[in-house]
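Hi Y.,

Following your request, here is the sequence exactly as I used it, all 356 residues.
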Amino acid sequence: MAYIELNKGKLLHNFHFLDTLFERNNIHWGMVSKILCGNKKYIELLLDLGIKEIHDSRISNLKVIKSIDPKVQTVYIKPPPKKSIKNLVKYADVSLNTEYETIKLISEESKGQNKKHKIIIMIEMGDLREGILGEDLVDFYSSVFKLPYIEVIGLGTNLNCLNGIMPTHDKMVQLSLYKQLIEAKFDKKIPWISGGSSVTIPMIYKKLLPKGINHFRIGETLFFGNNLITGKPIKGMKSDVFKLYAEVIELSEKPKVPMGEIGTNVAGESPEINEDDYGKKSFRAILDIGLLDIDTKNIKPVKKGFQFSGASSDMIILDIGRNSGKLKMGDMVEFRLDYMGALRILNSDYIEKRIV
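Below is the corresponding structure, written out as tokens. Let me know if you'd prefer a different format.
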């Protein structure tokens, strides 16, 4: 068996840490829940923490959130597909948008559902993911704000998600200026400048964040406590909210070098042979988890000296040396995960999800 464990106390600690940080800096924030893959008991835990705004990239996940608490504000965080507009309006209070034709369809559907839909207009700031060009913003807004049942509540941007372009003071100032331009030209108030994500948090500490940036969308730092610039935990935050455990299903001493003609494995890889390993043996532990669930580059054994020897679709093999820790059949091996590792594990129907 294998399971992932979410530590409620550590998550609560990180939530209060971030909530205090943002409150001190007059920043509104929402929690990005896509890592939880719509797991109902994990989402219930988030709502118990006191989170009032949840962001997700899957409408099915927003549906789960609304089924638990219809009052929580839900935000759809990628340009909506036209074929999903009906459910988008039903389950998302806010969406991030870049296409006029899509927003027009949202307006028409919102009329049918007799509700107003809020949008954040995303602006391209260099990472080349979603966003309209800044030079087109005035004309774009001019068309959008005339649509009934649509309320523009923010301008936003995504950085570091696709090409690794980092947020800077200059980029955030430019985003703030776009807001000032729209407000002055159209005499319309736009409450949010949604320029913040986990990668933007270090700018707060360095006092590089313009005061106009007043809305953050936070996922990774809440769950992993990471400074995404340095790759190290933020002082005072917990980095081990999630832990992964996998059971040992075979444990034996075997040669370190495979025997026979070498081809490619199921992943299309050929092993690299260290000639110094010929004639040597080590203990190998086979674990009840595989590439179907996780990529070994996204997890790390907590026990020192354990090294990945290989993996197939349903099993991972660890080289545990002389087994000085006396690992036994049936023992659970503990791993730390990064964000993408947790995302893949939580999306696997084969891995049990626990809360401690």
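The longest strand covers residues 242-255.

Thanks again,
Q.
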